[in-house]
Amino acid sequence: MKKIILAIIVIAEVFVACNNNATEKKNTDTNVATSTVPAADISTKTASSVKEIVDDYLQMKNAFSKDNDKDAAAAGDAMVKAFANFNTSILTSGQSKIYTDTQDDAKEHAEHIGSNGGNIKHQREHFDMLSKDIYQLVKTFGGGQKLYYDHCPMYNNKKGAYWLSETKEIANPYLGMAMPTCSTVKEELK
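Now predict its structure.
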Protein backbone atom coordinates (compact mmCIF):
# COMPACT_ATOMS: atom_id res chain seq x y z
CA MET A 1 0.00 0.00 0.00
CA LYS A 2 2.85 2.38 0.85
CA LYS A 3 4.44 1.69 -2.54
CA ILE A 4 1.21 2.60 -4.31
CA ILE A 5 0.88 5.80 -2.30
CA LEU A 6 4.54 6.64 -2.91
CA ALA A 7 4.07 6.04 -6.64
CA ILE A 8 1.03 8.34 -6.67
CA ILE A 9 2.99 11.03 -4.84
CA VAL A 10 5.92 10.72 -7.23
CA ILE A 11 3.62 10.98 -10.25
CA ALA A 12 1.86 13.98 -8.71
CA GLU A 13 5.22 15.64 -7.97
CA VAL A 14 6.38 15.09 -11.53
CA PHE A 15 3.17 16.60 -12.84
CA VAL A 16 3.45 19.60 -10.51
CA ALA A 17 7.14 20.00 -11.33
CA CYS A 18 6.43 20.04 -15.06
CA ASN A 19 3.75 22.67 -14.59
CA ASN A 20 5.78 24.83 -12.21
CA ASN A 21 9.06 25.01 -14.10
CA ALA A 22 10.64 22.20 -12.09
CA THR A 23 10.47 22.37 -8.31
CA GLU A 24 13.48 20.13 -7.91
CA LYS A 25 17.01 20.96 -8.97
CA LYS A 26 20.40 19.38 -8.57
CA ASN A 27 23.26 21.40 -7.09
CA THR A 28 26.30 20.20 -8.99
CA ASP A 29 28.82 21.75 -6.59
CA THR A 30 27.68 19.78 -3.56
CA ASN A 31 25.71 17.00 -5.28
CA VAL A 32 22.76 17.67 -2.96
CA ALA A 33 19.24 17.63 -4.37
CA THR A 34 17.01 20.54 -3.39
CA SER A 35 13.26 20.27 -3.46
CA THR A 36 10.34 22.37 -2.41
CA VAL A 37 6.70 21.59 -1.81
CA PRO A 38 4.36 23.84 -3.82
CA ALA A 39 2.99 26.40 -1.36
CA ALA A 40 -0.43 26.56 -3.03
CA ASP A 41 -1.06 22.89 -2.20
CA ILE A 42 -0.50 23.25 1.55
CA SER A 43 -2.51 25.37 3.94
CA THR A 44 -0.84 27.28 6.76
CA LYS A 45 -2.78 25.20 9.30
CA THR A 46 -1.59 21.95 7.72
CA ALA A 47 2.03 23.10 7.63
CA SER A 48 1.81 24.19 11.27
CA SER A 49 0.38 20.83 12.36
CA VAL A 50 3.05 18.91 10.46
CA LYS A 51 5.75 21.17 11.92
CA GLU A 52 4.75 20.06 15.43
CA ILE A 53 5.27 16.41 14.41
CA VAL A 54 8.55 17.27 12.70
CA ASP A 55 9.78 19.18 15.77
CA ASP A 56 9.18 16.11 17.96
CA TYR A 57 10.96 13.97 15.36
CA LEU A 58 13.96 16.32 15.40
CA GLN A 59 14.13 16.19 19.21
CA MET A 60 14.17 12.41 18.92
CA LYS A 61 16.90 12.52 16.26
CA ASN A 62 19.01 14.80 18.43
CA ALA A 63 18.58 12.51 21.44
CA PHE A 64 19.69 9.49 19.40
CA SER A 65 22.73 11.37 18.11
CA LYS A 66 23.76 11.81 21.77
CA ASP A 67 22.92 8.16 22.62
CA ASN A 68 20.17 9.40 24.95
CA ASP A 69 17.45 6.73 24.92
CA LYS A 70 15.39 8.46 27.66
CA ASP A 71 15.05 11.75 25.76
CA ALA A 72 14.31 9.78 22.58
CA ALA A 73 11.52 7.96 24.44
CA ALA A 74 10.10 11.29 25.68
CA ALA A 75 10.15 12.65 22.11
CA GLY A 76 8.38 9.49 20.92
CA ASP A 77 5.64 10.05 23.49
CA ALA A 78 5.36 13.71 22.44
CA MET A 79 5.10 12.68 18.79
CA VAL A 80 2.23 10.29 19.58
CA LYS A 81 0.39 13.25 21.17
CA ALA A 82 1.16 15.46 18.17
CA PHE A 83 -0.37 12.84 15.86
CA ALA A 84 -3.45 12.66 18.10
CA ASN A 85 -3.80 16.47 18.01
CA PHE A 86 -3.43 16.73 14.23
CA ASN A 87 -6.59 18.23 12.73
CA THR A 88 -7.31 16.05 9.69
CA SER A 89 -10.43 18.09 8.85
CA ILE A 90 -8.16 20.72 7.26
CA LEU A 91 -6.90 18.21 4.67
CA THR A 92 -8.29 17.55 1.24
CA SER A 93 -9.54 13.99 0.67
CA GLY A 94 -6.31 13.09 -1.17
CA GLN A 95 -4.14 14.61 1.54
CA SER A 96 -6.20 12.87 4.22
CA LYS A 97 -5.61 9.46 2.64
CA ILE A 98 -1.85 10.03 2.42
CA TYR A 99 -1.71 11.42 5.96
CA THR A 100 -3.76 8.58 7.46
CA ASP A 101 -1.73 5.84 5.76
CA THR A 102 1.56 7.43 6.82
CA GLN A 103 0.36 8.40 10.29
CA ASP A 104 -0.70 4.85 11.18
CA ASP A 105 2.83 3.49 10.69
CA ALA A 106 4.62 6.55 12.08
CA LYS A 107 2.54 6.62 15.24
CA GLU A 108 3.24 2.93 15.85
CA HIS A 109 7.00 3.49 15.53
CA ALA A 110 6.83 6.55 17.81
CA GLU A 111 4.93 4.47 20.39
CA HIS A 112 7.63 1.76 20.27
CA ILE A 113 10.37 4.35 20.70
CA GLY A 114 8.47 5.92 23.60
CA SER A 115 7.92 2.63 25.40
CA ASN A 116 11.44 1.23 24.94
CA GLY A 117 13.63 3.62 26.89
CA GLY A 118 16.65 1.59 27.95
CA ASN A 119 16.80 -0.35 24.67
CA ILE A 120 18.37 2.14 22.27
CA LYS A 121 19.14 -0.51 19.65
CA HIS A 122 15.44 -1.38 19.36
CA GLN A 123 14.48 2.30 19.41
CA ARG A 124 16.88 3.01 16.54
CA GLU A 125 15.36 0.18 14.49
CA HIS A 126 11.99 1.92 14.80
CA PHE A 127 13.59 5.30 14.16
CA ASP A 128 14.82 3.98 10.80
CA MET A 129 11.26 3.10 9.77
CA LEU A 130 9.82 6.26 11.36
CA SER A 131 12.27 8.38 9.35
CA LYS A 132 10.81 7.02 6.10
CA ASP A 133 7.31 7.97 7.24
CA ILE A 134 8.32 11.47 8.36
CA TYR A 135 10.15 12.02 5.08
CA GLN A 136 6.91 11.10 3.27
CA LEU A 137 4.94 13.60 5.40
CA VAL A 138 7.49 16.35 4.76
CA LYS A 139 7.56 15.67 1.02
CA THR A 140 3.76 15.77 0.94
CA PHE A 141 2.98 18.62 3.35
CA GLY A 142 6.27 20.45 3.95
CA GLY A 143 8.15 20.58 7.22
CA GLY A 144 7.72 24.22 8.17
CA GLN A 145 11.47 24.81 7.89
CA LYS A 146 14.52 23.92 5.85
CA LEU A 147 15.47 20.29 6.41
CA TYR A 148 18.24 18.01 5.22
CA TYR A 149 17.77 14.38 4.22
CA ASP A 150 20.89 12.56 5.41
CA HIS A 151 22.19 9.05 4.76
CA CYS A 152 24.33 6.81 6.96
CA PRO A 153 25.87 4.00 4.88
CA MET A 154 27.14 2.04 7.91
CA TYR A 155 23.93 1.46 9.87
CA ASN A 156 22.20 -1.94 9.88
CA ASN A 157 25.17 -4.02 8.71
CA LYS A 158 26.00 -1.51 5.99
CA LYS A 159 22.46 -1.54 4.54
CA GLY A 160 22.30 2.12 5.48
CA ALA A 161 19.52 4.37 6.71
CA TYR A 162 18.18 7.88 6.16
CA TRP A 163 16.93 10.60 8.48
CA LEU A 164 15.88 14.24 8.44
CA SER A 165 17.88 16.96 10.14
CA GLU A 166 17.39 20.65 10.77
CA THR A 167 21.10 21.35 10.28
CA LYS A 168 23.50 20.66 7.45
CA GLU A 169 26.11 19.49 9.96
CA ILE A 170 25.92 15.75 10.45
CA ALA A 171 24.93 14.36 13.86
CA ASN A 172 24.31 10.68 13.20
CA PRO A 173 21.34 9.30 15.16
CA TYR A 174 22.03 5.68 14.20
CA LEU A 175 25.65 5.45 15.29
CA GLY A 176 25.49 8.22 17.90
CA MET A 177 28.67 9.18 19.66
CA ALA A 178 30.56 6.19 18.22
CA MET A 179 30.57 7.75 14.72
CA PRO A 180 28.83 11.12 15.00
CA THR A 181 29.75 12.51 11.58
CA CYS A 182 29.50 9.34 9.49
CA SER A 183 26.98 10.33 6.81
CA THR A 184 26.24 12.60 3.90
CA VAL A 185 23.48 15.06 3.03
CA LYS A 186 21.44 13.64 0.13
CA GLU A 187 18.72 16.25 -0.24
CA GLU A 188 17.77 19.71 0.94
CA LEU A 189 14.05 20.22 1.61
CA LYS A 190 12.69 23.76 1.73
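Confidence is low (pLDDT under 50) at residues 10-30, 36-40.
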